[in-house]
Specification:
Elements lengths: L1 E4 L5 E8 L3 E7 L2 E6 L9 E7 L3 E2 L3 H8 L11 E11 L4 E10 L2 E16 L5 E12 L18 E15 L10
Protein name: Polyisoprenoid-binding protein
InterPro entries: Lipid/polyisoprenoid-bd_YceI, TTHA0802/YceI-like_sf
Family: Belongs to the UPF0312 family.
């Protein structure tokens, strides 16, 4: 069954070390995708997500501009970040791993998302939603995001490891009945 991502109730956030002493957090505010969620056999499910790289928001316009520049995401040439699942491994009834291809700046690498299934609920409007939490860590250099500045006290301005956290709410798509025409 096809489910769509409810972007108004979902978040894609990230954090990275700044100057070796703190973390900068950000999010992407525009993304879309579909989940083919097989409720009877979740391992047969699949996920496709497209993130608008220009929607990056770290609460600092200058930093966001730098992150969109060729030093990092190069959004003029690569306006989207994509994820496409390849397989799903179940750990137990509510935990699993989604293994898939993450493409940033035209570079595709396999990543593993640790996922928790948070259950389903029916809304007052009759729609059915399911919730998931997911996380992973990547090394930004694996995608060609190598810009940095050495600090005089040692270390670098921007850490290599990026933590990614996802809260996803998906809505079941109800098949439309074919109207009878005369």
């Amino acid at each position: 069954m096809t489910w769509t991502i409810d972007a108004s109730h979902s978040t894609i956030t990230f954090s990275v070390r700044h100057m070796m002493i703190s973390k900068v957090r950000g999010r992407f505010s525009r993304f879309e995708g579909t989940v083919n969620f097989d409720e009877q056999n979740p391992a047969n499910s699949s996920v496709q997500v497209t993130i608008d790289a220009t929607s990056i928001d770290t609460r600092d316009e200058r930093r966001d501009g730098h992150l969109m520049s060729p030093d990092f995401l190069d959004v003029a040439n690569y306006p989207s970040i994509t994820f496409a699942s390849k397989r799903i491994e179940l750990i137990d009834e509510t935990h699993g791993r989604i293994i898939g291809d993450l493409t940033i700046r035209g570079v595709t690498r396999e990543v593993v998302l640790d996922v928790e299934y948070n259950g389903q609920s029916k809304s007052p409007w009759g729609t059915t939603s399911a919730g998931f939490s997911a996380s992973t860590k990547i090394n930004r250099k694996d995608w060609g995001l190598t810009w940095n500045v050495a600090l005089e006290t040692g270390g670098v301005l921007v850490g290599e490891e990026v933590s990614i956290e996802i809260e996803l709410e998906i809505m079941k798509q109800v098949p439309q009945e074919n109207p009878i025409t005369a």
